[in-house]
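TL;DR need structure tokens for one chain.
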Amino acid sequence: MRTFLSGLLTLVAIVAIVVAFPSLWVKERLVDPEGFVSTVTPMASDERVKDYLAGEISASVTQQVGVQGASAVIEPAVRAYTHSDQFEADFVDVVSQQHAWLFDPPPPGGPSTVMELDITDMVNRVIAQTGISARVSGPIVVPLNRGGSGLEAGRYHEVGQQITTLAYWSLVIAVAGSVLALLFARRRGTVLAWLGIGLIASAAFAWAVGVFFAERAKQEVEGAEESGREVAELIVDGAVSDLHHLALIVGGVGAGVVVLGVIVRLVFAGSPSRR
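>> reply
TL;DR here they are.
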């Protein structure tokens, strides 16, 4: 009976482990606002991101100022701004807008519009650097999907809540199942080895989730104009790279647990109640 119960608990723990890691990553790195910001903030240093926003800011500043020949002053100011420390802080604000748009509850009865980025603060900061006495109240927005489909407000609100619930419950079941399986086991080394295999399987599943997420997310921005789509795809690739990096770590830990389980089994081979 102990062997059967331990085997059943081990199986339950393995299934929970496989689900727990990728769902926790999604919860912590995408659904959670601070986690999302920390995931995408390093991308502010990418030249493609700077070039895209520099073009949008330059066009907006030139339009708002309305001074003939102002572009000769505006463009160098924009380039200096996108390579300053302040740009990273403003970029964090922009990606926070993205997160709020996708994961916050949609406005009740509001229009199902596509996501737009408010770059008003960026525009005013550049205008101030040029020395031109002007300030715009905005909003100055950049639509991420000019085709008019996809990326509606609150698109991932319910999914984010479901993934958060799944992440917490799978973690609790994985920990409880593992501990109880080890307590009931006659061969704890064998249970450890199987739990290690569960970690390896979880890493492989997370890798596959990353590939699927990248493909699906890029489909969402197919309607964006070329440079905007490239930036969106860059953010997607950066997030998936973070998941794949962590998957390699989890897989390595799993391999270590398998080896530990084999060692425990060999050390206690002569003690039926403990091996």
